[in-house]
Structures are given as structure tokens and as C-alpha cells.
Prior knowledge:
The protein is mainly beta. Helices cover 6% and strands 46% of the residues. It contains one helix and six strands, in the order βββαβββ. Strand 2 (21-25) and strand 3 (28-34) form a beta hairpin. The N and C termini lie close together (6 Å).
Amino acid sequence: LYTVRLHFAEPDGLKAxxxxxxxxxxxxxxxxxxxxxxxxxxPGRCVVKEFKxxxxxxxxxxxxxxxxxxxxxxxxxxGLELLx
Length: 84
């Protein structure tokens, strides 16, 4: 079992609600309609989301899906940490 930490920051100066997306780890949605700028308190600020107890046999699978109403349909991640 692992702890997965996902690091995000809005590098393009986008405001809240412009780049919402969902994140799935190992096929399970862990963040729905996640908005970096809203969660971090504005563009250029960092936010870290942590998920414990993730089962990883051979591979870690992350899936990023733009929200249907997203103005910018390009999800992003800035960093990833795996802790055994």
C-alpha cells in the first residue's frame, strides 16, 4: 500500500472555474471537478492532495479527464510523490 501525493499549481494564470477536471487513481475517481485555482486560492499557488492506502502491484495509473463545462480542456499535474 502506498500514499500518493499529487502536487498542483495553476501556471497559466487561469482563474477559478476555467480548468476543472477529474482525477482517478487506479481507476477510481479521487477528485471530481477539481479546480486548482479555486483550491489553492488563486493562480500561481500550490495545493497538494494526499491519498492513503493505494494498492499498486506493478503500475500506478493516473487518469485526468476535463470536466464537461471546462473552458480550458487541458488537465495538469506539477508533481507526484509515492510513499511506501
